[in-house]
Amino acid sequence: VVTGCVSVIINSKNGLTDKKALKKALPFAATGLIAGYLLLPLIETLLLKKLFGGILLFLGASELFSKPKKH
Fold first, then answer.
1. Is the pTM value of this prediction over 0.90?
2. What is residue 50's predicted lDDT score, i.e. its pLDDT?
3. CA-to-CA distance for 54 and 39, rounded, in angstroms?
4. Model confidence over 14-44: pLDDT tens digits?
5. Using an 8 Å Cβ cutoff, are 22 and 8 in contact?
6. Which residues of 21-55 are buried (b: 16+ CB within 10 A; e: fewer)?
7. How far apart are CA 63 and CA 8, in angstroms?
8. Which of 34, 47, 52, 62 has the CA that lies 20 to 30 A from 40?
9. Cα separation, 43 vs 46, whole angstroms
10. What is the number of other CB atoms lying within 10 angstroms of the CB of residue 15?
């Protein structure tokens, strides 16, 4: 969370952040953060590791097999 906040601040100072998109995404990020915090004691560590690993595999595969975007 701290790293993400620092990244947004630094990229905003450098003009690399779409502030309109950031304002739209911020409520969802805050909701996800609070929901994760509240659900954390209810979920076992092994399950969290498997879920995180699955998300990383999905994101990696989608990046690997997606078509390159034309600029």
1. no
2. 95
3. 18
4. 988 888 998 999 999 999 999 989 998 999 9
5. yes
6. eeeeeeeeeeeeeeeeeeeeeeeeeeeeeeeeeee
7. 22
8. 62
9. 9
10. 7
CB-based contact 12:19 (threshold 8 Å): yes
DSSP string, the chain: -HHHHHHHHHHHHTT-S-HHHHHHHHHHHHHHHHHHHHHGGGS-HHHHHHHHHHHHHHHHHHHHHSPPPP-
Return the ∠ at Cα 55 (arms to 65 and 30), rounded to 5°.
120
Q: Quick one: tokens of 71?
A: 């600029």
Provide the residue type at 55 as one letter. I
Structure tokens of 21? 């998109």
The two tokens of residue 60 are 């990696």
